[in-house]
């Protein structure tokens, strides 16, 4: 036992938990990470589940005292993600919760997001896994636990292939790191909450962190880059971003994200989807619908994994409780099989499980999508209709739909265009990604295009099915694009010629839903998003996107020469 380690017990109902506090774990470069270990009072070796992030191990201990909170509870804190400590101990595992380097009680320096630019976090996690496996309280079988940031860390650890990491169970991780921070090229504010601790999240437990941009560039070079970034009127109009760029100290990670608006080496070298090609241990991926970019990332990761794998797409709503307690039944079945050797039949079940909203059916298959898909169009028509048949009138008769959005500095109103189908006469099932082809002219050189697709029941109540985002200057398509499945490289900005009609193809994130008889499909288009609505109330308070900082007039053409349409994944009967 190290000199820092202390022993105590905690009580959770009638369960007594032995706690090893502030254990110091040496990394290969001499830095020590701080961990706590929770297990049963009987002195015996057990399988261990490791939870590591930069959010602070002390915060995770609230799982023993705070009842789980669901959004929109003001007590919901998105950073309490390491799992249900009492449940882990009750299932006879050791729950190891620790601080990454440069945070909490750990030593060292964290440079840039996930320490890319410093010591690889995967390297630290390798060392930690092997150290835990060698302890007398561990039987040598190690898995990992935790959602979101903790989930991403699992993938980074597994990609390093530590010999004693036998399996992982990832729920709600973030994988394509560019897509985590820029949706369709539009900056998402949620990473600000995770880094800075805004909007109901405690944020990273900073102790010694540095901006990678400030490590790489001289002050003179960096000033030129900052000045260039501030020439984006959307960035310059947003007070927090102006402040971050002018005074980056203590906002190092958010500064780095704001300064890197394009995809490329900065994000690719830390992309778990790329690293996952090296993973051959069993991986269970679980994600709920409603946050499409994370669903997309889980599917993309699933498709590149080489070993035994499962993909479980669950129901709406998108955000689990905090402290996180959901999915533990599935997780322990997974770990009982791979870490304890219990033949519980989990590997006899389909590799892919998808909950279908509307019908409330769970579909099992060996691949995504779980059913054969027939991509079919629904066209934007006059009188705000959405229909299977294209518009026959030319632009001289089918005049465009339009909206003018003033910047949110001078208005509270977000203008929204909408189109809807007639009520369906029979159930219609859709599972997969989609696309929105929009012919739009704007009077500026850039804008945001934000689409939401809803299932509206008779009486007006509705549920979000999927979303799409595209910054107009990021409209270039990637060669991977196929019908109903568009991609964008996001490697540069191509300004729009004001007044020119351009075709924009938005990626509609994966979803699974059955629209029942009497329901309508409603599609909304805007260039900013309402800060409060039925869907956003389920998300953390900062989960919105950078608004457009200048007035923009949009003309949406949907005529015989400009067939604006949705291309949706209707399943074959």
From TrEMBL:
Molecular function in Gene Ontology: dipeptidyl-peptidase activity
Listed name of the protein: Cocaine esterase
UniProt keyword list: Hydrolase
Domain of life of the native organism: Bacteria
Organism: Pigmentiphaga humi
Domain Xaa-Pro dipeptidyl-peptidase C-terminal: 332-567
Enzyme Commission number(s) of this protein: 3.1.1.84
PANTHER family, alphabetized: COCE_NOND FAMILY, PUTATIVE (AFU_ORTHOLOGUE AFUA_7G00600)-RELATED (PTHR43056:SF10), PEPTIDASE S9 PROLYL OLIGOPEPTIDASE (PTHR43056)
NCBIfam families (alphabetical): CocE_NonD
Pfam assignment, any one: PepX_C
Class of the enzyme per the UniProt entry, highest EC level: hydrolase
């Amino acid at each position: 036992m190290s000199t820092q380690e202390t022993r105590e017990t905690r009580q959770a109902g009638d369960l007594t938990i032995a706690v090893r506090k502030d254990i110091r774990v040496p990394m290969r470069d001499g830095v020590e990470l701080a961990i706590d270990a929770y297990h049963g009072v009987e002195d015996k070796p057990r399988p261990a589940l490791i939870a590591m992030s930069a959010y602070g191990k002390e915060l995770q201990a609230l799982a023993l005292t705070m009842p789980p909170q669901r959004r929109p509870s003001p007590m919901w804190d998105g950073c309490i993600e390491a799992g249900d400590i009492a449940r882990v101990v009750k299932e006879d595992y050791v729950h190891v919760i620790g601080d990454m380097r440069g945070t909490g009680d750990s030593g060292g320096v964290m440079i840039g997001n996930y320490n890319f630019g410093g010591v690889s976090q995967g390297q630290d996690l390798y060392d930690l896994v092997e150290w835990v496996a060698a302890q007398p309280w561990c039987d040598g079988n190690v898995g990992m636990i935790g959602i979101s940031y903790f989930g991403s860390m699992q993938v980074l650890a597994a990609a390093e292939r530590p010999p004693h990491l036998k399996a992982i169970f990832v729920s709600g991780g973030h994988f394509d790191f560019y897509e985590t921070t820029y949706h369709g090229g539009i900056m998402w504010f949620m990473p600000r909450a995770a880094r800075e601790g805004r909007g109901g999240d405690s944020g990273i437990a900073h102790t010694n962190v540095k901006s990678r941009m400030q490590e790489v560039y001289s002050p003179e070079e960096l000033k030129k880059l900052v000045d260039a970034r501030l020439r984006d009127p959307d960035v310059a109009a947003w007070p927090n971003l102006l402040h971050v760029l002018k005074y980056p100290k203590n906002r190092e990670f958010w500064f780095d994200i704001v300064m890197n608006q394009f995809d490329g080496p900065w994000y690719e070298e830390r992309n778990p989807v790329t690293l996952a090609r090296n993973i051959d241990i069993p991986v269970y991926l679980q994600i709920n619908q409603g946050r499409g970019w994370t669903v997309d990332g889980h599917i993309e990761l699933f498709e590149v994994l080489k070993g035994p794998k499962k993909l479980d797409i669950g129901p709406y709503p998108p955000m689990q409780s905090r402290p996180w307690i959901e999915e533990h039944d599935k997780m322990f079945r997974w770990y009982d099989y791979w870490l304890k050797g219990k033949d519980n039949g989990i590997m006899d079940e389909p590799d892919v499980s998808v909950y279908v909203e509307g019908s409330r059916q769970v579909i099992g298959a060996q691949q995504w999508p779980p059913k054969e898909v027939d991509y079919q169009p629904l066209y934007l028509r006059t009188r705000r209709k959405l229909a299977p048949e294209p518009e026959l009138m030319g632009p001289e008769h089918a005049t465009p739909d339009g909206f003018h959005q003033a910047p949110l500095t001078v208005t509270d109103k977000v203008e929204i265009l909408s189109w809807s189908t007639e009520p369906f006469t029979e159930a219609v099932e859709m599972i997969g990604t989609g696309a929105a082809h929009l012919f739009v002219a704007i009077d500026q050189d850039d804008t945001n295009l934000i689409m939401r697709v809803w299932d509206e029941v008779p009486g007006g109540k509705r549920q979000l099915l999927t979303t799409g985002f595209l910054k107009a200057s990021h409209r270039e398509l990637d060669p991977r694009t196929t019908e109903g499945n568009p991609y964008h490289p996001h490697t540069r900005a191509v300004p729009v010629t004001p007044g020119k009609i351009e075709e924009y193809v938005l990626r509609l994130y994966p979803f699974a839903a059955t629209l029942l008889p009497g329901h309508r499909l409603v599609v909304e288009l805007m260039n900013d998003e309402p800060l409060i609505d039925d869907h956003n109330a389920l998300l953390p308070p900062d989960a919105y996107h950078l608004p457009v900082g200048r007035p923009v007039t949009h003309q949406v053409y949907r005529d015989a020469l400009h067939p604006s349409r949705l291309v949706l994944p209707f399943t074959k009967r």
